[in-house]
Design a protein that fits this description.
By secondary structure, the protein is mainly alpha-helical. It has helices spanning 23-34, 38-49, 54-78, 85-92, 95-127, 133-149, 152-185, 204-214, 223-226, 234-263, 276-285, 287-321, 327-330, 341-355, 360-388, 398-417, 421-441; strands at residues 8-9, 451-452. The protein has a two-stranded parallel sheet with strand order 1-2. The protein is globular.
Length: 458
């Protein structure tokens, strides 16, 4: 069956966002979206799943993410508009395929604020055990929603302040962890191959399954591409920001979990697997660092919740602007603050309600289901657009146009295949719902999807 052609329509001035963010803003935004403490949220479970090889899982996932970040940046240079994977696959390959990439990423983006609310509340309860769970969830979901309704400049300023605090606590952890290890094992104790390879517990299948979970560390890096309409010089800055965020996250996060493993190598003795990193900080720094890390994870999840909610709202905005989902609801911008305010409110309500019924691990797995399908789609779009359908004004590059995106696709596919069955089942149900949504929108696939002319966002 041949797919319908893709007509373009001009964008109106009221549907355009404003370019106010610098490269620095975008990098800081991406680091806060991922959060420098992201490895702490997966440390315990990834360490248990990999049988002591959490460092390997962090670095392995980094390879897939850097390759995918390059693909995101190249597509953002061609299509500097809101919508991220949805826009890139739609325009790079076909709107129907783009719809499913966007639909998969929608699952990811909706669940990231939910995950932040869940894990942030769990961390808050370690610092304030008497606080009821639902109160913490309400504070998280309500707080990030209020800040984002104020506009993207307020979000960027809040990110800067939170980033300073997070780095302050994490640097204290690094210094005290080094001091703790040296005091017990000497300077030589800082150098060990066991976090990378312990022959007694190294099993490729376990490493692959744990890497699928540890990849959660990087989710949010693509949030920088959802701000392509908010950033100055998007053709250069989006690619740079995406790659820098992924490399920084992998190297800095790898250092954190390496030191945490050396300080507490027996993963079978964790008091609480979900928040094991907080207990490690208590071991190396005492009660004050324990409390500071609990607060840090609260702050980090506020930051990640802020940025991921913005990304989700803009993905909905991009799909609503194309009228894939109802334009009257999802493509509305606030007349003063220039924010997709209805989307932000809906996401805040969903995050609070979902936190009452969803578990930490299942939410994380569902995040990866949607995210890595979208990542595979973007890598495939680069291959199709640059290798099979290249611009006649430039020569094809085997390395940039085929090898790197193909490697990114394969790495992401391996991580996706390593997800547990419940996540695959729930995610597949979401995709089936997407088929019905697309069928209704296109009159049973007989009508084309109208794409907005990307030149309107230059």
């Amino acid at each position: 069956m041949s797919l319908p052609a893709t007509p373009l329509s001009p964008a109106t001035e009221t549907q355009k966002l404003h370019r106010v963010l610098s490269l620095r803003d975008l990098i800081f935004y991406g680091i806060v979206a991922v959060t420098p403490s992201a490895p702490a949220t997966i440390f315990g479970l990834a360490e248990v799943k990999s049988q002591g090889h959490v460092v390997v899982t962090i670095l392995g996932a980094m390879v897939a993410m850097v390759l995918t970040a390059i693909s995101y940046g190249r597509m953002a240079a061609l299509y500097p508009s809101a919508g991220s994977a949805y826009s890139y696959v739609s325009r790079g390959m076909h709107p129907y395929l783009g719809f499913f990439a966007g639909w998969a990423m929608l699952l990811d983006y909706v669940f990231i604020p939910l995950f932040c609310v869940i894990y942030g509340t769990l961390s808050l309860q370690r610092a304030v055990p008497a606080m009821p769970y639902w109160v913490g969830a309400l504070l998280f979901a309500g707080g990030i929603t209020v800040v984002n309704l104020r506009g993207i400049r307020y979000t960027a300023r809040a990110n800067d302040a939170m980033l300073v605090f997070m780095f302050g606590v994490l640097i204290c952890f690094i210094v005290l962890a080094v001091k703790y290890i040296v005091a017990r094992h000497g300077v030589g104790g800082l150098w060990s191959t066991q976090p990378f390879y312990n022959p007694a517990t190294f099993h490729p299948r376990d490493i692959a399954a744990a890497t699928s979970f540890a990849a959660l560390t990087y989710l949010g890096f693509d949030a920088v591409t959802t701000l392509a309409e908010d950033v100055k010089n998007p053709r250069r800055n989006v690619l740079l920001a995406a790659v820098i965020v992924c490399v920084f996250t992998g190297l800095f996060g790898g250092l954190l979990v390496y030191l945490a493993h050396l300080a507490w190598p027996d993963y079978a003795t964790y008091k609480n697997v979900e928040t094991a990193f907080i207990d490690v900080t208590g071991r190396v720094g005492g009660p004050w660092l324990f409390q500071a890390m609990a607060i840090l994870l609260v702050v980090a999840n506020i930051g990640a919740g802020l940025t991921s909610q913005v990304g989700a709202a803009r993905l909905l905005f991009g799909m609503g602007r194309e009228n894939v989902i109802p334009r009257r609801i999802f493509a509305q911008l606030h007349p003063v603050r220039n924010t997709p305010w209805i989307n932000i409110l809906l996401l805040g309500v969903l995050a609070f309600l979902g936190a009452q019924v969803m578990s930490y691990e299942l939410t994380a797995e569902l995040l990866n289901f949607g995210a890595f399908l979208g990542f595979m789609g973007v890598n495939a779009a680069v291959i199709w657009k640059f290798w099979f359908r290249p611009d006649t004004t430039r020569a094809r590059s085997f390395l940039l146009d085929l090898l790197l995106p193909a490697a990114g696709f394969v790495f992401c596919a391996v991580i996706w295949l390593g997800l547990n069955a419940p996540a695959k089942i729930a995610g597949s149900i979401w995709l089936v719902v997407g088929v019905f949504v697309l069928a209704a929108h296109t009159k049973r696939f007989r009508q084309p999807m109208v794409m907005t002319d990307p030149s309107a966002y230059e």
